Amino acid sequence: MASNTKMPEWAPEGDCAGFACRVMDGVAAGHDGISAYSGTEEGKKPVVRHRRPQLTAQEYADGVLRGDRAVLGRAITLVESNAGHHIEKAQEVLKVLLPFTGNSIRVGITGVPGVGKSTFIETFGCHLIEQGHKVAVLAVDPSSSISGGSILGDKTRMERLSREERCFIRPSPAGSTLGGVARKTRETMLVCEAAGFDVVLIETVGVGQSETTVRSMVDFFLLLMLAGAGDELQGIKKGIMELADALVINKADGKNKLIAETARSEYERALHYLQPSTEGWVSHAYTCSAMANEGIDEVWKVIGKYREITGKSGVFERHRKEQSIKWVHDMVDDHLRSLFVKHPGVNKIIKDIERSVANGAMPAVAAVQQLISVFECRS
Ligand code: GDP
Hints:
Elements: E1 5-6, E2 23-24, H1 57-66, H2 69-80, H3 84-97, E3 105-110, H4 117-130, E4 135-140, H5 144-147, H6 159-162, E5 167-169, H7 178-194, E6 199-204, H8 210-215, E7 220-225, H9 231-241, E8 246-249, H10 256-272, E9 284-287, H11 296-313, H12 315-342, H13 344-359, H14 364-377
Parallel strand pairs: 3-6, 3-7, 4-5, 4-6, 7-8, 8-9
Antiparallel strand pairs: 1-2
Helix pairs in contact: 1-2, 1-3, 2-3, 2-7, 13-14
């Protein structure tokens, strides 16, 4: 037995030489947990390995513009950080990168869990890479902070794509609010564009508010659907259908092919009665099989056509400008809201006010007036 071993503290008392378990002495480590022991030569002074050197904002930006994947990953981690000094530095980096952003087509992809989003992105992404594109895959999944991990953008679900040198996959950032997650994803998208990714795919789940948010940050919004799904599912989709620039029925393979085609013509009729999502563009329904790689190229051609038509009409650029302005307003809303909920005076009275409103003792408008007047006093 090596001399630097000892009995664990939970070993039985008394003579227990036969007790098999031993604990090794620890190795001295730096504050960051990295081993301070440098080698095996006796008598040699241990060398402490330090953390990676901090990059300046310019170094981050230069690395991103060179397409250096390691720096790109670090820049995105910086953008995703909630620490005050990181936010400041991230803004400096983004300022340098801004002139190099915008040169991509931004595609949002949504659909209920199980519809085949990750399978589609894997097949679609590989197809685009074969054509010479550089593809970034991001995700907006506000539930990830509740479920404890991102369910979208998970690398293991896109095995083939994640091995591609010309692809960058980033799971959904953590965040307690959809607004927070969206801010980080938007900024990550800009960083990826500056790094030369010319197609950005943003995946989101087809439940809740996240698709409206993703719609407001992409050029083209694609809704994946299933043929023969129950009425319950169709109900969820109606509002989302109005946001879609294309509706694609996935899993159109094997014995499902015919059912998918019938569903496609039904959806095509339904789209006819809906307000178009984008001015000057008529949304259509298509079928595909992400698994069998069928109909995938057609989807890309539709996106190309959309780019061409909306580019000529000026709608494409106008949308992007409107999206940027809306983003500013959304961030102001988020900021004011967070100041409001953190305000000590508001915190002191809000529970009582809520109770009074719930009991019918106070009208809602009076409650708002009281809360706002306390907030404005900055007491
Ligand atoms: P997500 O939850 O929307 O990301 O869905 P996944 O991509 O994880 O797919 C859910 C299931 O549907 C998996 O078992 C896939 O293998 C399967 N699937 C995805 N696309 C197709 C397809 O085009 N055809 C068939 N038959 N199955 C598919």
